[in-house]
Amino acid sequence: MLILITFAAVCRFVPACSMRDCRDKIDPLAGYSSFWVFEGVRSYVTAKIEDGLPSPHAQLLLGFIIGSDSYKKFSRFNDVLLRTGTIHVAVVSGYNISVVAMFITKILGHIYSKRNLVAVLTITALYALLSGFEPPVVRAWFMAAAVIFVKFRGQRTYAILPLLYAALVMIILNPAYIYSLSFQLSLLATSGLFLFSPHIESLVKKAVNAGDLFANTISSTLSAQILVVPLLAYTFGSISVVSIVVNTLILWTVPLATLLGALYVFAGPAGVLIKLPLVFFLDIFISLTEFFSHFPYAVIDIKKFS
Fold first, then answer.
1. Strand pairing partners for 239?
2. Which of these, 293, 243, 264, lies nearest to 58 by C-alpha position?
3. What pTM, to 2 d.p., does this model score?
4. What integer pLDDT is reported at residue 20 of this predicted model?
5. Which pLDDT score is estimated for 257?
6. What are the residue ranges in the chain where pLDDT is below 50?
7. pLDDT given for residue 211 in this prediction
8. CA 106 – CA 223 distance, rounded (Å)
9. Alpha-carbon distances of 109 from 104, 117, 129, rounded to whole Å
10. What per-residue string of b and e applies to 210-234 under the rule 16 or more CB within 10 Å gives b?
11. Distance (Å, rounded) from C-alpha 268 to C-alpha 253?
């Protein structure tokens, strides 16, 4: 925890980006693809989804699957994501990969068998590869893999250390990462999931006698928000009041839409059968974010108080 607090303190003094130049600060290595061989796959996925789905559904799904930020072309929808505090969900990050990993773990039963561990790591690695294994996704996968492996070992004390060691190694290899907003968000969101999720999930189950899916959704949302919200507030100069509520309501749609989207792309003619439920889950995400974005005080401008 001391290491995490130290890292957060360092990030506090890293120059943050304004809305105008944030795209450049999100990743210093944007545009570089570690695995150019996957560009053909990315092009196929993009064409398949954009030809088959309406907008902004297609752009949102591309964010889930390959980390594309093409949703920014739709300024209104981009503003909706910012106002509802869901911008970090719309692209592949450590948060998304961790959520997908947790979802797969729930399906398999638990993470404490080697078979399940290999399955989760393999599926999340394929997910990362599909996005071209670009720098933000490489970081995200290593962070998520560190968390998954520690859970497999059943370690509780100092279990956060492998995640922080992975982050430290990446910073040593490329010090520019310390200036990357996506790196900071990935680390903080994944750390939040790891540090707080089990405890919050247990409290939710006791408080409202909730099922696993509901408790997991609540705990995942709150855990990530605890560490992410302060950084987003400092970076963008505003706080989304509805963020926790919206994230709780939509989070469960992300792994479902991601998995259905991947099946839709590679299912051939059978993709027609998958399209209906896929659009349904994307509709839920879009409708809820748009609904809450219209609240008059959905966002508080903290610059007024600085």
1. 300
2. 264
3. 0.73
4. 37
5. 92
6. 1-34, 157
7. 64
8. 18
9. 9, 11, 25
10. beeeebbbbbbbbbbbbbbbebbee
11. 23
Structure tokens at 145: 């893999």
Predicted confidence at residue 131, as pLDDT, reads 66
In this predicted model, what pLDDT tens digit does every residue of 42-68 receive, in sequence order?
788 889 999 999 999 999 999 888 877
> CA–CA separation, 18 vs 25, rounded Å?
9
pLDDT at 205: 79
Asked if 102 and 260 touch (Cβ cutoff 8 Å), the reply is: no
For residue 263, how far is the Cα from the chain centroid?
20
pLDDT of residue 290: 95
CA distance 110 to 11: 34
Rounded CA-CA distance 214/252 in Å is 9
Structure token digits, residue 66? 């390959």
HEC profile for 233-274? HHHHCEEECCHHHHHHHHCCHHHHHHHHHHHHHHCHHHHHHH
* Nearest residue to 247 via CA among 262, 232, 260: 232
For the chain, the helix, strand and coil percentages under 3-state DSSP, each to the nearest 5: 75, 0, 25
Residue with tokens 């993009």, as numbered in its chain: 46
pLDDT given for residue 133 in this prediction:
62
Distance CA 62, CA 94 (A): 16
Contacts of residue 78, defined as CB under 8 A and 6 or more positions apart, other chains included, come to: 71, 72, 87
Distance from C-alpha of 232 to C-alpha of 185, rounded to nearest angstrom = 8
Please enumerate, as own/partner, the contacts of 208-217 that have beta carbons within 8 Å and a separation of 24 or more.
212/106, 213/106, 213/252, 216/102, 216/106, 217/248, 217/251, 217/252
> Can you give the pLDDT at residue 53?
94
